Structures are given as C-alpha cells and as structure tokens.
C-alpha cells in the first residue's frame, strides 16, 4: 500500500521488534524488504536523510524532511535506528554507512537542540558503541537454547542485537546474516557467541558469563 516515510519506518521498527522477540527469520526478511522500498522511494541521495513523501507520489512544491522528535519520534530518527540494527543483524556495512549519512544530514540541528532529537541520539549511541552482536547456536526446540534466549532477553542492552542460529548446514538465517554460517553449536548444546563489530570472542556454553560480560562492558565503556 502507498505510505509516507513514517509508515515505512515504523513498520520496519515493528518487524525488527518481532524478530528479536521470537527469532523467526520471516520478520527480518520482511524488514529488509520494506527498508529497501523505503530507500528507493524516500532517500535524498544528494543531501542525505529521507523525504516525508515518496519519489513516485503526487507532485509537491517542496518535498519536506523532518527530524524533530515530538510525541512520536520522527521518521528519519526511527530510520537511522533501523538502519543500524539491520546492519548489525545482517553484517551489511552499506546500511550502517547510510545510517551515518542520515545522522550527519541533521547534525547541526542536533547540536543546537539535543533534547528535541532524543531518538536520533539513540541511533548515534548505537553507532558509536559499545554495541554487540549475540548469536545463540543450537536446537530451536531445545530447553537450553530457549533458556539462553530468555536470559539474554532479560538484559537491558539497547545497543545489542540477538540472532538464533539453528543447527543444520544452511538455516534460513544464514542467508540473511551470512556471518552466522560458521557459528555452530558445540557438543549438541546451546552455544553463545558474543561479538563486537563482528569480532567474536571464543564460543561458550556459559550463559551467565555472557550476560555478565554484556552488562559490564556496556557500563564500563567510555562515552
């Protein structure tokens, strides 16, 4: 259906939330598809950021761009955040570069009124880091796999993304996030990979140690 920037941005955001909640790859696939449409229809390739109206919409005197976060965050702020999350989930660096360009397009306004751009600042925080990619490799039906996902889900880590890498040679998530292909379970048990900028620590079966590392690193990192 035809929509404006906010319609696309918030739909992608919701799909990513669904994916993080139940790890069904169809939500991530759908988020990537809608995000691709949004880039084609709304991106300003010259100055950065995203227009409110689509490229093939009705002719307007001016195609506006909005970044101010009011009662709801702006479409550009949500988009910047979406792009960072999609980049970290899939390993697609082009999406992260696009997020950076979006932030830079509005950097002057952010500096003048930071309190009016809180959602975009959240995207900036995600870009700067620390941020983490968490891969849980194991049998999706196994108790230890679900216990690991539940434990990670209870941690407040807004700058982290989590992926379930099911056992098998070519689960669908490896086509969306190719870097997970080599991250397999060990000894038939749920195995965790804690990565920062796709540089991963040694795999571990100790969920508690990953949770501790995740929370401690986030608190100790300089801002």
Description:
50% of the residues lie in helices and 10% in strands. With 223 residues, it is of the alpha+beta class. Strands 2-1-3-4 form a 4-stranded mixed beta sheet, sandwiched between helices. It starts with a helix and ends with a helix.
List keywords for this structure.
223 residues, alpha+beta, 4-stranded mixed beta sheet, 9 helices, 50% helix
Set down the secondary structure blueprint.
Elements: H1 5-22, H2 25-42, H3 75-90, H4 93-105, H5 107-112, H6 118-128, E1 132-138, H7 143-153, E2 160-166, H8 173-176, E3 191-196, E4 199-200, H9 207-220
Parallel strand pairs: 1-2
Antiparallel strand pairs: 1-3, 3-4
Order of helices and strands: HHHHHHEHEHEEH
Kindly report the spatial arrangement of strands forming the biggest sheet: 2-1-3-4
Largest sheet: 4 strands, mixed
- The low-confidence runs, each spanning 5 or more residues with pLDDT under 50, are none
Strand content: 5-15%
Number of strands: 4
Helix and strand composition category = alpha+beta
Whole-number mean pLDDT = 90
N- and C-termini, Cα separation: 41 Å
Give a quick precis of the structure.
The protein is α+β, with helices and mostly antiparallel strands and 223 residues long.
């Amino acid at each position: 259906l035809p929509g404006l920037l906010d319609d696309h941005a918030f739909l992608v955001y919701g799909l990513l939330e669904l994916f993080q909640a139940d790890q069904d790859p169809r939500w991530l696939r759908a988020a990537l598809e809608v995000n691709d449409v949004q880039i084609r229809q709304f991106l300003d390739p010259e100055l950065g950021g995203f227009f409110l109206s689509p490229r093939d919409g009705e002719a307007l005197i001016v195609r506006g761009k909005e970044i101010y976060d009011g009662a709801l965050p702006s479409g550009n702020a949500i988009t910047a955040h979406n792009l960072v999350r999609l980049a970290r989930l899939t390993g697609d660096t082009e999406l992260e570069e696009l997020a950076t360009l979006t932030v830079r397009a509005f950097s002057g306004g952010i500096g003048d009124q930071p309190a009016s751009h809180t959602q975009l600042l959240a995207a900036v925080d995600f870009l700067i880091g620390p941020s983490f990619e968490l891969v849980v490799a194991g049998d999706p039906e196994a108790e230890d796999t679900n216990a690991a996902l539940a434990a990670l889900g209870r941690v407040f880590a807004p700058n982290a993304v989590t992926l379930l890498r099911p056992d098998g040679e070519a689960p669908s998530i490896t086509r969306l996030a190719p870097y997970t292909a080599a991250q397999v379970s060990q000894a038939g048990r749920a195995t965790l990979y804690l990565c920062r900028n796709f540089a991963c620590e040694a795999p571990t079966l100790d969920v508690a140690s990953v949770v501790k590392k995740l929370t401690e690193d986030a608190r100790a990192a300089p801002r």
